[in-house]
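cron nightly-structures :: item 1 of 1
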Amino acid sequence: MKKILTAIVIPAFILMWLLLNGCNNILSNSNPSYRQVTEYNGHFIISGSSAAMVALKPLTDAFSKNYHGVTFEYGPGTKMSSSLSQVKSGIIDIAVFARELKPEEKDPKLRLDVFLYDPIAVVTNSSVRIDSLTMDQIKDIYTGKTGNWSEITSANSTITVCDRSEITVCDRSEEETAKIAMRRFVFGDELKITGSAVILEKEGDMINAISSTPYSIGYYSAVQARVASNSRIIKINGVEPSVANVRNGSYRLVRPIGIATLDQNGTLKKFVAFLYSDEAKKIMVKNGYVPIEPKR
């Protein structure tokens, strides 16, 4: 009789443990920080502006962490026109851009979401001992009127001017989005860049050139500039490219970052909503970007 009772009692305790453990799992799954939700899943391919992909990456990482069934794959940087065509043809799922789209690019089939501003910084090699330049001083450097740092600081050294290609900027077209911002907010359309400027095709090339070339000056994302080696962010008219200064309007040299999508499923809609969430905004600000509220 004792053997029978033992056989019955032990499974009862095991059953009780299983029930309690199951209840704990249910409670933990109800915690808002746990978001392994089966209806949100899928693999999404992203391509477009290299600068925009850098800005988007921390956000896709956070979303995948929240929803473990969702993964994102980043392709190589491409021209905006190419990535928009690839979205419409179904080759990629998300096209990212870092400039305002032209009217002819705004296909009604595409959903466009601009979700942050990327501040552009004027940057020098760390050999340049200066903290701020006026707008006119920057223009004079880029036209060649000011060719030596001794005209501004105590350093008697020739200024190496680094610039982005002008070819695709003339029609407000493709990849040189930092140059588009510089034309709009600093240079103006008519300013003629000095013929001695070093022309760089990619933002990565600009970062490397400034970092490795003494007494050089250029411009690129302030987010990238803060982590670049041997480089110095220059204030414009005494104003630094911070999140606070972009928000209060005192620093206007920015480029918009957005995505273009087609035929959004439930997961993609959830991701777009996430881009405007408080969680995403905190990630943007932490990384030095400025969140944009969705258009109503």
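cron nightly-structures :: done
The radius of gyration is 26 Å.
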